[in-house]
Amino acid sequence: MQSAVFIEPQKIQIEHRPTPVPEKDEALIQVEYVAICGSDQARFWEPASVLPEPVVFGHEFSGRVVSAPVGTGLQPGQPVTVAPLFNCGNCEFCKAGMENMCPKRRRFGVAVDGALQAYVCIPANRIYPLPTNISLELGALVEPLAVAYHTVRQAGIANGEDALVLGAGAIGLLIAQVWRALGYGQAAVIDINPKRLAVAEQLGIPVWKKDPEESNFHNIFEATGSAQAFSKWLPALAPRGKAIVVSKLEYPVTIDWVDLLRKEGEIITSRYFTLADFESSLDLAAKEAVQLKPLVSLIVPFQKLSDNYGADVMSLARDAVRLLVRFQG
């Protein structure tokens, strides 16, 4: 089979590898679509990006079942999505339903090979059949939807509070949609990319156009990765407000702690998602309470990853809300 292997910064190489053989608790999945996320791009472009050994990127994906253990209910040819949580299942966090905090969790697409290859073996209990109204294309976006769902849940929101989302990328737009879908009201977004703001308007998400000095929000979600943006907008937090950080800020942030103290404000972080979040997100998508299709900016064939060692695809992904890599057809 063909695999897209990240071998060094700014270099992906297409390799021919044997089709993997599943263990007794695993299913063999034929990959259909893989979404290129911000963390994939960051590792690709970072000059100092060092992984222990070459690895296959990709953790947001969909596919079809080739084979599965008896008793799982999974059938050959069945369209599925995957919750890529490779946690131990035995630690205190796993037993408490906080699989994202498992100290032994192996990061799919980082510590172990990800989905940018023709076939993958996945534990059967991490595989979810797609409802009939969710295409394989959109099934690749359930994972980032789960990240957004967990972020909103982390905030512990009360109904009727307002929110501002910093960043109109996939995670930011999904946070705004989840906020609305769960009945918390409307969430506005900001961004400097006009294409992303156009998608926000298409989704009916207000674009906030005032300056921080003119703003006052009970909840601010940081989804840009920009330390400068977070520092700029944190003063817009209302008294007793919460700032929820889901992105990896590119450098340390300077914070006016006295101002935050006087407001009794909180800074909360959100890491990945739990299995419960993933299942709730799939349910939201099935009920069409969130829109996934407008987030797909571009679909490219797998073979395009061979162009310029993957740089062409990663450059396109930089300007997209979500770029999908298509395997079949």
Secondary structure layout:
Layout: E1 2-8, E2 11-16, E3 26-36, H1 38-45, E4 55-56, E5 60-67, E6 79-82, E7 85-86, H2 92-95, E8 106-107, E9 119-123, E10 127-129, H3 136-139, H4 142-155, E11 163-166, H5 170-181, E12 187-190, H6 194-202, E13 217-222, H7 227-233, E14 237-245, H8 257-263, E15 266-269, H9 275-286, E16 296-301, H10 311-318, E17 322-326
Parallel strand pairs: 11-12, 11-13, 13-14, 14-15, 16-17
Antiparallel strand pairs: 1-2, 1-4, 3-5, 3-9, 3-17, 5-6, 6-10, 7-8
Helix pairs in contact: 1-10, 4-5, 4-9
Description:
This protein has 329 residues and is of the alpha/beta class. The protein folds into 2 domains: 2-141 and 292-326, Medium-chain alcohol dehydrogenases, catalytic domain (Quinone Oxidoreductase, Chain A, domain 1), CATH 3.90.180.10; 146-269, Rossmann fold (3-Layer(aba) Sandwich), CATH 3.40.50.720. The chain has 10 helices and 17 strands. The chain has helices at residues 38-45, 92-95, 136-139, 142-155, 170-181, 194-202, 227-233, 257-263, 275-286, 311-318, and strands spanning 2-8, 11-16, 26-36, 55-56, 60-67, 79-82, 85-86, 106-107, 119-123, 127-129, 163-166, 187-190, 217-222, 237-245, 266-269, 296-301, 322-326. Strands 3, 5, 6, 9, 10, 16 and 17 form a 7-stranded mixed sheet that branches. Strands 12-11-13-14-15 form a 5-stranded parallel sheet. A hairpin with a 2-residue loop joins strand 1 (2-8) and strand 2 (11-16).
